[in-house]
Specification:
With about 120 residues, this protein is mostly helical. It has helices at about 10-30, 30-50, 55-85, 90-124. Belongs to the bacterial diacylglycerol kinase family.
Length: about 120
């Protein structure tokens, strides 16, 4: 299959959205880490409705969920490319994959902090 660039702006954008949706569904169907993060995102969304968090709290919670899912997706892409380039264990590939996982960890810590700031006062 040969990639052909669309000549019109709208057709090109629609193709881009189609590819993005395919990628999103592939992540959700195949990656356990994304499945876990989506489950946590759904749980926090249900909790937000139950505890009636404010509009500002919704903004921060939505941003945190999106941040973690986005970075997790990038981490998965980096891991897949690294495994494609060098399928066997290699010290430098391991280093790259560890850094990508560290980025997810930063995003997760940020999301946890936001969640604690939003929800601890609701339970106290």
């Amino acid at each position: 299959m040969e990639f052909q660039k669309e000549n019109t702006f709208i057709k090109g954008r629609l193709k881009s959205v189609t590819y993005a949706c395919k990628g999103m569904f592939k992540l959700i169907r195949t990656e356990h880490s994304i499945m876990v993060q989506i489950s946590l995102g759904i749980l926090m969304t249900v909790l937000g409705f139950y505890l009636k968090i404010s509009q500002t709290e919704w903004l921060f919670q939505t941003l945190a969920i999106g941040l973690v899912l986005s970075i997790e997706g990038l981490n998965t892409a980096i891991e897949k490319v690294a495994d494609f380039i060098h399928p066997d264990y290699h010290k430098k590939i391991g280093f790259i994959k560890d850094i990508a996982a560290g980025a997810v960890f930063f995003a997760a810590l940020t999301a946890i902090s936001i969640g604690l700031i939003i929800y601890i006062p609701k339970f106290i």
